[in-house]
Amino acid sequence: MKQSEIKELSIADLNEKLGALQKNYTDLKMAHAITPMENPLQLRSLRRTVARIATELTKRELQ
């Protein structure tokens, strides 16, 4: 998810998306620990997307 797409979402949408992505990330991380993933770069991109959304939420709270 790109930063421009994240900026267009509302705070409620961002919170919902953040929860879903964090759950997805932990599930993928556990699955990768058991059997290695074919493309481990998915973990990196998902982790960065979670960070982008969390950063946008923090930025909006401070405004």
Automatic annotation (TrEMBL):
GO terms for cellular component: ribonucleoprotein complex; ribosome
Name under which the protein is recorded: Large ribosomal subunit protein uL29
Keywords noted in UniProt: Ribonucleoprotein, Ribosomal protein
Residue ranges of coiled coil: none
Residues annotated as transmembrane: none
InterPro entries cross-referenced by the UniProt entry: Ribosomal_uL29, Ribosomal_uL29_CS, Ribosomal_uL29_sf
Name of the gene: rpmC
GO MF terms, alphabetically ordered: structural constituent of ribosome
A biological process term (GO) from this entry: translation
CDD domains associated with the record: Ribosomal_L29_HIP
Organism: Polaribacter marinus
Assigned protein family: Belongs to the universal ribosomal protein uL29 family.
